[in-house]
Every structure is written in C-alpha cells, then in structure tokens.
Specification:
- This protein is of the alpha/beta class.
- It has 12 helices and 18 strands.
- 30% of the residues lie in helices and 23% in strands.
- The site of pyridoxal-5'-phosphate has 17 residues, from α10.
Length: 401
C-alpha cells in the first residue's frame, strides 16, 4: 500500500487505525499453496488467533483455507464466519477437559497435547478420532519466548513418550487420525524445520490409520531490514519430496496440513497512529503517539521491531527518535530509530501489524480499541468500529455499597 492511501484512510476513519491489505493476504496464500502444488491433498488451516476479524476469516475462507483454533470461542467465531466443522481443527493447550468435549461435540477435529487428557478422552469417547500434538524437542530459534519445541515446553507430548501414547491407544481402542507438531514462530532456517519433520515422520510410522500430518507453522516473516524470511519455495520443494516418499512407504494417502498465522496476515497489516507530542530531552527526542501497548503490545512483549514510517512526511530528512505511547507505563515502541523528520500531528505507520496486534489489544487506561479497515481494489471497508464509551461500561454493574 502507498503512504498516500494510508494517509487518506487515517483521514477518513480517524486514528489510531488498523488497515489490512486483502491482496497481500491472497498473495501469501497463493505463494504457500504454489510452493506445495505437487502435494495432492494440501490443507492450510489459518491460525486465527493472529487476527480474528470475521471479514478476514471470510476472505481466507474464500481463498480456500481451513481454520486452526485454540479456544471454544474461536471455534464459534469460525462457524459464525461460515467455516464448516470439518474445516476446523482445535489445537488448545491447557484447556479444561469439558472444553475439549464441547468442541468434539461440534464434530471439529481435536488435537490433544497431554497424556492424561488423551487417556481420559480415549476412555470416554473411543469412537471420536483424535490428532496428537508431538513435541519433537527441536529448538526453533533464538527467542526463548516463542520457542515451543524445547525440552521444558508446555506444548505437546514428548516424542519420548510415544510408547505411552501407543499403550493408551491400545487400552482405549481410540483412533488416532493425525499427528501434529508446531515448533514455534521463530524458526531460523528450513533445515531445522526439515529435521523436526523427520522426527514427525518417524513417529507417524507407528500409527497405522492416519489421515493427515500437520506441520504447524513457524514460518518466519521479516519485520525489519536484514531479518531472515523462511524461504517457502525451497521448503516446499524439499518437504514435498520427503512427504511424497513417506506417503508411498506408509501405503496410504495422506493430507499435508499447515497452520500459518503470521505468514498469511502479518505483512498485510498497517497500524496508523498520530503523533501527539515531540519531546526533546537531554539525550533523545521522543515522539509520543496517540496509542500504546493497549493497541500494539508486541514491541514490549516480545521485543518485536516493527518498521515505523512517517507517512505524513515520507521524503523528509531522517532523524533519530524514540517512539513511545501515551500509557502510564513504559511503553516504548522503538528506541533510537531513524525516521523521516516528525512534527506533532504527523501520522506514523507501523508495518507488519497484521498478526498478533489487534487480536492482543486491550482497554488498559480505559482507552477504546481502534477501528479496523480492509483495503481492497483501492477502497477501504470498515470491518470493525472504533469502540465507544458504551463498550467500556457494557458489562459493568454499578453497585453503591
Ligand atoms: C499460534 C499458532 C500457530 C501460528 O503461528 P504463526 O507463527 O503465527 O504462524 C500455529 N499453530 C499453533 C498450534 C499455534 O498455537
């Protein structure tokens, strides 16, 4: 998207504002499916926790994705958006047994990542097919916060516990129809991914009635200059070859599934916020915007570095800024960052604001959540309204004691 289009949207819909480019989402989907075009049964389940607006879900449904969900409410949202239960997989962690049962009742594929739950579920519902989430214990990358494959991770059933899984299956007579892994969102190179995949193939051999293998996500998208991006085309080539060979050995046709969030929507998103104040101190220049970690928490939560542009003055001379929010906490979006010269009232644009941005927004400091706009064919469509005071007090019950 062009700065002038974004600026016009900020003018039309106000600040702060989330904008999503529909074409980028479609292109990312097409790129992923093209990379695996030789796989006959490919299934892309969009990890909807990244961005769960209904219009975005409908757009991805039109592309042809299924859904990866992590809560009963996400399943409900998916059904509400028009996905049929057979297009949804439920991959929760640490939820109650009752929640898993409720989702299974809707005929949604469930994915279990805990031995005690597997045993309980298998004993109670032996006819419901279940996928199991394996932890291959592969360190996905550099950032401990989002590496979920390591030995002490809370995610998945350890690959070393396969004998115990097999015993549970035998004891309960349950049917395992899928094997799953998700090694986190910080995989640095595809060799690591392929290494984990080998572990999954090895595990899969021990289950005779599988319908699918699910390789989760972990596709890396670049946030700042110099960041590594997963080479999807190369991964597609290499993994397809291994998958087809495995399928032949296995003697049964299988679906290859992925569940990307970030890869599909991160780069499609832009967050726009106005500069309230420019403040010189003894050592830096702060640009304070009309937002904070209530709207975009990734920089403070994960240390994510979203590229920031001054779309009001894109050609301006670059200066160094510390970009901060208006929350009464330290909420630094960027430290000592080169940005085209900023004046009060300018609109800053944060890139890669599609995944885990709006979906992590809160009302801290009693601020409203921003509006969201979907950009398609040169036009902005409002897909969620800016909150109002009524939204803030809707669930409150006033008692004066
Ligand atoms: C969050 C999540 C994903 C998506 O991860 P991305 O990094 O956004 O692609 C996929 N699978 C599971 C189980 C998840 O929890």
């Amino acid at each position: 998207m062009q700065p002038k289009d974004l600026l016009a949207l900020a003018e039309e819909f106000g600040n702060p504002l989330y904008v999503y480019d529909a074409t980028t989402i479609e292109q990312q989907y097409n790129r992923l499916t093209a990379a695996f075009s030789k796989v006959e049964n490919l299934r892309i389940n969009y990890a909807m926790k990244a961005l769960s607006n209904i219009s975005i879900l409908k757009l991805l449904k039109k592309c042809g994705t299924g859904l990866d969900t992590v809560s009963y409410q996400e399943v409900q949202l998916g059904l509400h958006a028009g996905f049929t239960p057979d297009k949804i997989i439920f991959t929760p962690n640490g939820v109650s047994f009752e929640e898993i049962e409720e989702v299974a009742k809707l005929s949604v594929q469930i994915n279990i990542d805990n031995l005690s739950v597997l045993e309980h579920f298998g004993a109670k519902h032996p006819t419901v097919p279940v996928c199991i989430r394996i932890n291959p214990h592969v360190m996905a990358g550099g950032n401990q916060n989002i590496s979920v494959g390591h030995i002490d991770s809370k995610f998945g059933i350890s690959i070393y516990q396969i004998p115990h899984i097999l015993r549970i299956v035998e004891n309960t007579g349950m049917h395992i129809n899928g094997i799953h892994m998700h090694t986190g969102s910080d995989i640095l190179d595809i060799e690591v991914f392929l290494y984990a995949a080998e572990i999954l193939f090895d595990a899969a051999k021990q289950f005779k009635e599988l319908d699918f293998l699910d390789f989760g996500s972990g596709f890396k998208v670049p946030y700042k200059k110099g960041d590594i991006e997963t080479n999807i085309e190369e991964l597609g080539k290499k993994l397809t070859k291994r998958f087809l060979a495995f399928e032949k050995d296995y003697g049964r046709s299988l679906t290859l599934a992925f569940e990307p969030g970030k890869f599909l929507v991160s780069g499609a998103g832009f967050f726009l916020a106005k500069v309230n104040v420019v403040k010189q101190t003894t050592s830096t220049v702060f640009a304070g915007i009309d937002s904070g970690f209530n709207h975009l928490i990734r920089p403070m939560f994960y240390g994510s570095q979203h590229t920031i542009e001054n779309i009001s003055n894109p050609k301006g001379k670059e200066r160094f800024y510390t970009v901060v929010g208006y929350i009464c906490e330290t909420d630094t979006f960027a430290n000592n960052r080169q940005i085209a010269e900023i004046k009060e009232g300018d609109v800053l644009c944060f890139r890669n604001a599609g995944a885990y941005c709006f979906s992590m927004a809160s009302n801290y400091n009693s601020r409203f959540k921003p509006a969201e706009v979907l950009w398609k064919d040169g036009k902005g469509h409002l897909i969620s309204k800016r909150e109002t005071f009524d939204d803030l007090i809707r669930n409150q019950i006033v008692v004066e004691v």
